[in-house]
Amino acid sequence: MAVSKELKDAVLGELQKGQPLMNLELVRQELLKWLEHLPIPDNSENETWEQRLREFPAEPEDVGLESGLRIRLSLSLRTKENRYQLSILESLMPTSREVHIVCVHVNWKDTEWQLQKNVEQCYAGNFDDAPKASHTVWAQNFVLGQLGDALAACALAIFGNELINDQSQDEDKNLCNPLPVSVNFPKPSDD
Question: What tens digit of pLDDT does each residue of 144-157 get?
Answer without folding.
Answer: 999 999 999 999 99
